[in-house]
Design goal:
A hairpin with a 2-residue loop joins strand 7 and strand 8. The protein has one domain: Spore Coat Polysaccharide Biosynthesis Protein SpsA, Chain A, CATH 3.90.550.10. The chain has 7 helices and 9 strands. The chain has 195 residues and is of the alpha/beta class. The protein is 28% helix and 23% strand.
Length: 195
């Protein structure tokens, strides 16, 4: 089974006040961390969807197998999902969709999501969300999404895998400080063991 990854990294990071894709968490940039985790999980190809400040991000960060530009990034998450899924080849059996700002995500968790033919979401904070796995049969529905809710409606009734700390993402300076205290001192080879 060939499973791709689509990393959503097109936002402007207004609440953080700097590009979250390029903030440093330990020995790597946040976007680089997301790319690494996808690679360690066996995802191929790894597609990064950029939007705001795309050139600055590409210049500062060694990015993934494929980088695509979402020209409609101001619409919200659905536009990035559409852009990323449309970049997938016909030989892909499924894809994991994730954001670049969830430091609790590790390769072991992504591998638990990657079940052939099944939509599986992450569960945290009493809700379902990304990272989530979608089989190729769902790609047409993903390319029809609109607005800022992403794929939330498609995840309402699906099986889930618990992601400890998944409710924590990096949106503000306080979030970033907490992430640095929690994750920054863990060596890169050990990060995939965090559950």
């Amino acid at each position: 089974m060939k499973t791709a990854a689509v990393i959503l990294a097109a936002g402007r990071s207004e609440r953080l006040g700097e590009l979250k894709q390029l903030v440093r968490l330990g020995d790597e940039l946040l976007l680089q961390r997301a790319i690494r985790v996808c690679g360690e999980a066996g995802c191929e190809p790894v597609i990064v969807v950029l939007g705001a400040s795309a050139e600055a991000i590409k210049h500062s960060c060694a990015v993934a197998d494929v980088v695509v530009l979402n020209s409609e990034w101001t619409e919200g998450m659905a536009s990035s999902i559409r852009t990323g899924v449309r970049a997938l080849g016909a030989d892909v059996d499924g894809c994991v969709i994730m954001t670049c700002d969830m430091p609790a995500v590790n390769a072991a968790h992504l591998q638990m999501l990657m079940m052939p033919g099944e939509v599986i979401a992450s569960a945290y904070g009493g809700r379902r969300g990304v990272p989530a796995h979608f089989p190729a049969s769902m790609f047409p529905r993903l390319t029809e999404l609109r607005g800022d809710a992403g794929a939330r409606e498609l995840l309402k009734e699906v099986r889930t895998v618990e992601l400890a700390g998944g409710e924590f993402d990096i949106d503000t300076a306080a979030d970033l400080e907490r992430a640095r205290l929690t994750f920054a001192n863990v060596p890169a080879k050990e990060k995939t063991r965090l559950r």
